[in-house]
Design goal:
This protein starts with 18 loop residues before the first helix and ends with a helix. It has four helices and no strands. The protein has helices at residues 19-61, 68-82, 86-103, 113-130. By secondary structure, the chain is mainly alpha-helical.
Length: 131
């Protein structure tokens, strides 16, 4: 036992580790894909905006005035969606003041010509600003 030769401990072997490089690569690929996906979604949403505008404008133009209460609520709803500039909002406020009488009564009379004229003026302003 005393005469046995002691073997020295061998040094550790270096191991090549690529995990950091793989992590950075995956991170870069993920960021690039998120950027492209967000650009795609933003472009899709921007293309969809004029379609919504046109649909709402068409619904606003085709409101049936036979039921004055329902017409008043629909005009208010679609006009709020379409009004964006200060002039449009001012006309909308005037129109809402005129429609107030038709909304909150149980049995309301037909919408008068002055209110219809203000409604048509509002639609004209919306159409001019959309071009």
């Amino acid at each position: 036992m005393i005469n046995e030769k002691i073997m020295p401990i061998r040094p550790l072997l270096p191991i090549e580790d690529y995990s950091l490089y793989m992590f950075i690569f995956i991170l870069i690929i993920t960021l690039i894909s998120i950027i492209f996906l967000s650009k795609f979604i933003i472009n899709w949403y921007k293309k969809r905006q004029p379609v919504k505008f046109k649909k709402n404008l068409k619904k606003l133009k085709n409101i049936d005035f036979t039921d004055s209460k329902k017409a008043a609520y629909n005009i208010t709803y679609y006009a709020r969606l379409l009004a964006s500039t200060n002039e449009e909002k001012h006309k909308l406020n005037q129109l809402n003041n005129k429609l107030f009488d038709y909304k909150y009564k149980q049995n309301s009379q037909n919408i008068n010509d002055k209110t219809k004229q203000l409604y048509n003026t509002f639609i004209d302003i919306i159409q001019k600003s959309s071009k």
